[in-house]
Amino acid sequence: MHRRCSIPRMTSGKLPNRLKTTFRVARLGLETALAGGRSRLVTLRGKTRPSPRDPYVQNVSSSSAVIAWVSEEPGVGLLEYGQNPQLGREGIDARVGRRHAVSLPNLDPASTYHYRVAGVEGGAGRFRTAPEGEDSHFVFAVIGDSGRGRKQQLAVAALLERSEPDLILHTGDVVYPSGEDRHYDRRFFAPYRRLLKEVPIFPVLGNHDLEGGKGAAYLANFHLPRNDPRGTGRYYSFDWGGAHFVALDSELYHADDSGSPEEQKAWLERDLGETRQPWKVAYLHRPLYSSSRHGGDEKIRVDLEPVLVRHGVDLVFCGHDHAYERTVPIRGVTHVLSGGGGKRLYPVGRSEWTAFSKSAYHAVLVRVDGGRLSLKAVEPDGTVLDRMNLGRT
Predict the structure, then answer these.
(1) Inter-residue contact 314 to 333 (CB < 8 Å)
(2) Which has the higher per-residue pLDDT, 348 or 31?
(3) Domain residues of the chain, as ranges?
(4) Are strands 201-203 and 236-240 parallel, antiparallel or unpaired?
(5) Mapping DSSP to helix (H, G, I), strand (E, B) and coil, where does residue 197 land?
(6) What is the Cα–Cα distance from 283 to 294, expressed in whole angstroms?
(7) Is 217 left (phi over 0), alpha (psi -120 to 50) or beta?
């Protein structure tokens, strides 16, 4: 006698999404464990050098990009790149060492480029340059407080892979418990390994990123725009399509003594005054408004909010509190707390200016379609927490 077995048909898209998430998280977990093993071997051998690292895309614009990696042995860095898999152009980092960063100039906007790093297994990848013009279309993601390489962070990383954003903003606290270089491979580069080969990430400094070296590891691992007055990359701005992004250092109001909040404020005033982009987005680690554990930072709000309002900033993203919250427009500006990238969550309440709040792991996905902008906050299983639309006349 044969027993018949039937498998029920999946009528909802949620279960396939959960299965995909499970497989992605398992794969990312294996990669993170391997990265942790390599880091421990380096420590056991009594060496302080970083582990080998696959190439990752940095500081992409409409006309340039940076490819960075860490090689197994010291040497010069060499890669080939081009607009098709046959490549044809060459880039060199002539410095002898293990950390490499090669700038790729004179690229075409809104174009796909392939690259291959010489002598690195898994050294091939591709990326797409930023579009130009007010009518351009693109998607950016926002995450923050991303954690220690554990399952919650891996689940958010899997969500990002499925979402395929063009670029990612990170609202700070990139690795925990401190910003030491030894934490970066297992707690940042391994979870986002596949994503970072193709998609640039633009972070800001958080309070944990300053610990253990005052942000030195953050600056060594990220190759960011250096258009702040001192050329440090601790705060910066860049354009993508019809949007202008401003990354701010909230820690200048606290433990970061590398510069002054007055200097940053004066730079912000000039930067926003000079841009002609229709969409303006600012992001920093500490929130101006929050109904969660830390609450809004009054010093920063009093100092920077008038500048953001005066120059018509549309959105301000922040982290620090491990939750999600969106405000109603406050003096014309919508504030979005995105600190649910993987670290343990905080409770979140509601305030008179709260449009929506929830303590949940998530990523924020923002689609810019010319004069329209749509935002949604999404949990790792695909559940949409919150939506918002903005339009320009």
Answers:
(1) yes
(2) 348
(3) 63-129, 137-391
(4) unpaired
(5) coil
(6) 17
(7) alpha
Lowest mean pLDDT segment, chosen from 24-28, 137-141, 166-170, 370-374:
24-28
With 0-12 / 13-18 / 19 or more C-beta atoms within 10 angstroms meaning exposed / middle / buried, residue 106 is exposed
The model's confidence at residue 43, banded by pLDDT at 50, 70 and 90, is: very low
Right CATH number for 137-391 from 1.20.120.1200, 3.30.43.10, 3.40.50.2300, 3.60.21.10? 3.60.21.10
Query: If residue 224 lies in a helix (H) or strand (E), which one and from where to where?
Result: none
Reference 316, options 352, 371, 366, 361; nearest CA is 366
CA separation, residue 41 to residues 37, 69, 217 (Å): 6, 19, 20
Residue 275 has pLDDT above 90, yes or no: yes
The total number of residues shown for the chain amounts to 393
- pLDDT at position 1 is 36
Q: Are strands 112-117 and 315-318 parallel, antiparallel or unpaired?
A: unpaired
Task: Give Rg (Cα) of the chain.
Answer: 21
- Reported for 376-383, long-range contacts at CB under 8 A and 24+ positions apart, including other chains, are 377/324, 377/326, 377/338, 378/159, 378/163, 379/159, 380/21, 380/152, 380/155, 380/156, 380/158, 380/159, 381/14, 381/17, 381/18, 381/21, 382/13, 382/14, 382/17, 382/18, 382/21, 382/159, 383/14
Residue-level pLDDT at 20: 54
Residue 216 φ then ψ, to 5°: -60, -45
Three-state DSSP at 327 gives: strand
